[in-house]
Amino acid sequence: MLVLLQELMADDLRRVRAPSGARLFRQGDAARGLFLLKVGKVRLLRHTSDGNEVILHTARPGESLAEASLFAEHYHCEAVALEDSVAMLAPKERLHALLRTHPQAAELLFARLARQVRELRTQLELRNIRRAEERLLAALRLRADANGAVTIGDTWKDLAAELGLTQEALYRALSRLERQGAIIRPATRTVLLRS
User: What confidence tier does 106 reach under pLDDT thresholds 50, 70, 90?
Assistant: First the structure.
């Protein structure tokens, strides 16, 4: 999707740089459009009425973010750069016009949105698992390759946040799973599931 949108909207895309810790947009800002992440890592967060932060998604290069803004007046979350990042802003009026005239672009966007719905439903399913070690084990199984190996792409802290666990709860769960023989944890960020 990223390549096609860049080709079709080359004259309309605007480069946005965000150093680590900066926001591409804040919750409540007027929705300007969809972002295509070129470099870096950006986390989408929502602030609840009681002051808590909920991690919605972490975007990586080649991914889009703020797709919901295409049909909203305001951003419903904020986008924080976790490292120096560069994104291309696709203005929503131009993107709407493009989707009406290029079925392939519309199909790619719909496919991306469908993947996001599946990922969010999986995340909800995982967060509904009450015991930390069961939640962690379910998440590891979803990420495992055919050999049962799981490489943690981000930090353990990031995985904990994604699963709705504290770092401490995640590390305790890892230790319990290791003691139970459910996983083997070498010195790297790889976990091997025992069958």
Answer: confident
Q: Does domain 132-193 have CATH number 1.10.390.10?
A: no
Q: Per-domain residue ranges for the chain?
A: 2-127, 132-193
Q: How far is CA 21 from the centre of its chain?
A: 16
**pLDDT tens-digit readout, 129-143:** 999 999 999 999 998
Q: At what angle are helices 132-143 and 156-163 packed, to 10 degrees? A: 110
Q: From residue 101, give the alpha-carbon distance in Å to each of 66, 95, 104.
A: 22, 10, 9
- Three-state secondary structure of the chain: CHHHHHHHCCCCCEEEEECCCCEEECCCCECCEEEEEEECCEEEEEECCCCCEEEEEEECCCCEECHHHHHCCECCCEEEECCCEEEEEEEHHHHHHHHHHCHHHHHHHHHHHHHHHHHHHHHHHHHCCCCHHHHHHHHHHHHCCCCCEEECCCCHHHHHHHHCCCHHHHHHHHHHHHHCCCEECCCCCEEEECC
> 2-127 is classed in which CATH architecture?
Sandwich (2.60)
